[in-house]
Amino acid sequence: MQKKRWVTEKSKEINRARNSTQARQHKAYIWKKDNGFCRICGAKATTMHHPYGFTDYPALRTDMNNGYLVCDKCKLWADRKLEQRGGRPKKEENK
Ligand SMILES: [Zn+2]
């Protein structure tokens, strides 16, 4: 079995970035902006989606225009859309 060191290093870096003050402020801003509801279907939002993926676009992580609220269902949809665009590879999806 091959150890993927880069994943560890990269996820550490991403975790740090996610927990940064800027990221928290960005998140708070987006939640307030979208009022706690999914931007796609209008259901109660559960998470925030970055159209420009957190991993691939470090410069846009806390861009106020990069982010909107989604529910679980739409999050999957949004991620898939992104994937089709070649935006972000998702390892857990094998379909
Ligand atoms: Zn939704």
Radius of gyration: 14 Å
* CATH architecture label name: 3-Layer(aba) Sandwich
Beta-strand portion reads 5-15%
What global shape is seen?
Answer: globular
Number of helices: 3
Q: Kindly, what is the distance between the CA atoms of the first and last residues, rounded to a whole number of angstroms?
A: 23 Å
Largest sheet: 2 strands, antiparallel
How many domains is the backbone divided into? 1
What is the ordering of alpha helices and beta strands? HHEEH
Overview of the molecule:
The protein starts with a helix and ends in an 11-residue tail after the last helix. It has a two-stranded antiparallel sheet. Helix content is 42%, strand content 6%. By secondary structure, the protein is mainly α. The protein has one domain (7-84): His-Me finger endonuclease fold. Zinc ion binds next to helix 3.
Furnish the topology, listing elements before pairings.
Elements lengths: L4 H14 L2 H13 L13 E3 L18 E3 L1 H13 L11
Antiparallel strand pairs: 1-2
The structure holds zinc ion.
In a nutshell, what does this entry contain?
Helix content is 42%, strand content 6%. It has helices at 5-18, 21-33, 72-84; strands at 47-49, 68-70. The two termini are 23 Å apart.
Task: Quickly list its features.
mainly alpha; 95 residues; His-Me finger endonuclease fold; two-stranded antiparallel sheet; binds zinc ion
